[in-house]
Amino acid sequence: MGAALAERAKQAELLLGKARTEYRLLPAGRMLNRCAAGSLMPFQWTINPYRGCELGCCYCYARYTHEYLELDGGAFERIIFVKQFSRNLFERELRAVRAGEWIAIGTATDPYQPAERRYGVTRALLEVLARQAGLRVALTTKSDLAARDAGLLGRLAERNDVRVNFTVTTLDAGLARRLEPGAPRPELRLRALRRLAEAGIETAVFASPVLPGINDGAGELEALARAAREAGAKHFGAQMLFLRDPARSVFLAALERDFPHLAARYRRLYAHGSRVDARMREALELRVARIRQDLDLSRRASACAAAWGQLGLFENAATAPGGGAGVLIRLREAVEEAAAEARG
């Protein structure tokens, strides 16, 4: 099946070529992807309207998904595949979703990246979802374009459980530009969050990934959480950078370019794997717990919705049954099943 997917990608029609990015049309056999049975994912279904992501975040773990298309991780933000959408097919797919099951939108791509302004696949999906009842839908984004769909998301929330999660890693616009060169400025994301919150939509802010020495300085997470609460967020979470290939090579190259004084430190921190040691993770967990308590931000999202951000599903590996390398392998398999949809 992977070879078939790669062949479809090779034959994908060119929709538009820009200076740094090209869009291609990828005929999609399905939009809705079921997570593998026994998966450690906190959701049962995923939807990724696009393959690749033009936001170009230097730390993005999902770069590996382009390898299933026989493209390298560096092409992740340069070659964007727009999934062909069929309303009738999607409506039939939704019949398989059972009451109480979560659908996570944007697990391996941003559903409101620049391509969405032109092609509108995410909005088309939401229009179908808004005609349903009894669904549980979570959407994760870094884009203020989500505010465009405030009315539509409000209609979806009338008969369904809906959450919109905004990833905001820093309030510093200059720093955000270096880390996430194609993403809207942090204040624009928080403005969009406010609009959705005012429309009655449940919202959260994920300050993930936390990058030691870059966005975790004294008071930085606390200020970000206060800004999130003031904008109307009900939940807040933050987790450490998870670093695996090919994201590892891209991120380390960005460090050498923009933070050369930290490059050696990160090589030490991640010398033995994809995560920092347990003490650093535990210190961050305590810090986030204090922030939630001080600002009266609910922890309810942290056990489930926070994992819909970039890193949460990996952070629980140490405490999962049979924790350790075996769990990380199973987590990797789960991510590849749910986020990349590589088997379909």
Descriptive notes:
It contains 13 helices and eleven strands. It has 344 residues and is α/β, with parallel strands linked by helices. It has a single domain, classed as pyruvate-formate lyase- activating enzyme. The strands form two sheets. The protein has a seven-stranded mixed β-sheet, covered by helices on one side. A four-stranded mixed β-sheet has the order 1-2-6-5, with no helix packed on it. α7 packs parallel to α8 and α8 packs across α11. The longest helix has 18 residues. It is globular, with a radius of gyration of 19 Å. 46% of the residues are buried.
Short summary:
With 344 residues, the protein is of the alpha/beta class.
Summarize the SSE layout with pairings.
Elements: H1 2-10, E1 13-17, E2 22-26, E3 32-34, E4 45-47, E5 50-51, E6 79-83, H2 87-94, E7 102-105, H3 115-119, H4 121-129, E8 136-141, H5 150-159, E9 161-167, H6 173-179, H7 186-198, E10 202-206, H8 220-231, E11 235-237, H9 247-258, H10 263-269, H11 278-295, H12 312-315, H13 325-338
Parallel strand pairs: 2-6, 4-7, 7-8, 8-9, 9-10, 10-11
Antiparallel strand pairs: 1-2, 3-4, 5-6
Helix pairs in contact: 7-8, 8-11
